[in-house]
Amino acid sequence: xxxxxxxxxxxxxxxxxxxxxxxxxxxxxxxxxxxxxxxxxxxxxxxxxxxxxxxxxxxxxxxxxxxxxxxxxxxxxxxxxxxxxxxxxxxxxxxxxxxxxxxxxxxxxxxxxxxxxxxxxxxxxxxxxxxxxxxxxxxxxxxxxxxxxxxxxxxxxxxxxxxxxxxxxxxxxxxxxxxxxxxxxxxxxxxxxxxxxxxxxxxxxxxxxxxxxxxxxxxxxxxxxxxxxxxxxxxxxxxxxxxxxxxxxxxxxxxxxxxxxxxxxxxxxxxxxxxxxxxxxxxxxxxxxx
Length: 290
Ligand code: ADP
Ligand code: MG
Description:
Elements: E1 3-12, E2 20-30, E3 35-40, H1 46-53, E4 61-66, E5 69-70, H2 78-84, E6 85-88, H3 101-112, H4 118-131, H5 136-139, H6 149-161, E7 167-171, H7 179-194, E8 199-203, H8 207-213, E9 216-221, E10 224-229, H9 231-235, H10 238-243, H11 250-260, H12 271-289
Parallel strand pairs: 3-8, 3-9, 6-7, 7-8
Antiparallel strand pairs: 1-2, 1-4, 4-5, 9-10
Helix pairs in contact: 3-4, 3-6, 4-6
Bound molecules: adenosine-5'-diphosphate and magnesium ion (MG).
Magnesium ion binds at residues 46-47, 90, 171.
């Protein structure tokens, strides 16, 4: 499903003295098949934007289409849309509630896929838990509250992917995880993206995460899009990102330092690309010296 937002605006509590305009006209297209990154400061409108995509926040200004669903249409089939656009909130583990892991993960299915038989539900729950790297037999009867932090996060993700959404949105999915946990989570997302999930959208503060994982990204700033493009296109504009008070990936920092020393090195901004470019320079120099 292709996502097209045009002139999206949104204000919280519009009639109160605390009215906060969170989106000030967002134009963004996310193609089917992308692994898309959304970057920006706290308060720049990232969460407000992504919550529009499955109509958790109803459209009040601008236009938004997700596949054939026109979210400006009051007759849009919102429940059906939510079965196809899965949303993993920030710190989703705080939303676990059922007595057992099995019931928690099954909850989403029962909501969105009415009329499934019990065996089909168990099979889907088992598959979702195993996809996120948990042993079904070992965890299904446990209380979600007995699990470790990392396991809880996996259960919460299983509860969203159990409906096999075509578009999976994750708001700061790696926040609070240790480096290994982050790496495992990204591997999990790529494996889902490579199989049945067509589009993955992650909101992230971590520029290295965006550089290493995304096909394209958008930088939000004060309710608008400040930049959009491939990680290479965005991080080549490192000075502008720094001026916005945002960080840049480690590879971009290294490239800037080298540029300051007169070595102009353009990388695609993954560590691997960076290493390749440095090696190529090194080899050229060795060849030149010989
Ligand atoms: P981000 O996810 O980039 O941190 P948000 O979309 O959460 O940004 O917030 C954008 C703006 O909207 C901020 O100014 C924030 O204070 C305000 N905001 C977010 N959620 C609410 C809410 N539930 N009620 C009132 N204001 C909100
Ligand atoms: Mg947020």
